[in-house]
Amino acid sequence: MAKKDIDGLIGGMGVATSLISSLLEEVKRIGGTAEDVHRLVKPEGRQTITEMAKLVVFSSIDGNIKIKLDVNYDQSLIEAVKEGKYDDCFTYDLSLKNFPNHQSGQKEVELVLFCFGRQVYSKEVYEFEGKHGFRIATPRELLKLGARLPKLQLRFPMVALGPVGRHSLLLYGCNNRRGLSTTSDSPGVLWNGNYRFAFVREKKQ
Length: 205
Hints:
By secondary structure, the protein is of the alpha+beta class. 32% of the residues lie in helices and 25% in strands. The strands form two sheets. Strands 1, 2, 3, 5, 6, 7, 8 and 10 form an eight-stranded mixed β-sheet that branches. Strands 4-9 form a two-stranded antiparallel sheet.
């Protein structure tokens, strides 16, 4: 449905009623109360509504998540980390030696977080690159996502896989704290099934 049809969707009481009913059922299922629902229509509930809207817009039908980002490739990794305001940072070395940068300027990219739904070796992720018009996202691209949607990493860990022999960048959540870390990578590294791997959809020439 085109964006111009959103107003018509809002006016469709059947859809609205179904949406509200589903929301209330889910709130009840996870132990919520009427007070939790009432809070959504108050000023303090606006941020929650915004986060819900982001999930609707940025989630694809196959469970992966996609979002368009404006990335400044001239920004240093240290500056990008500061922009993300992470609670915990465990970084080995953010130098160009470990995280080479082959792009410049500012560009819009479509970043996609892929979930393989099982344990996966880095080799399999490398092999996925190039298929269906995707490339592995760079650390700057994943850091821009972390700054744009800071609460997303509290749901699952995300990885910008580095080239073989280099370092990968990880965003994760623990005890409601947002963390960032780096790790060396090789084809034999095994990742748990809850990890999301960051890719960028290549634009057709």
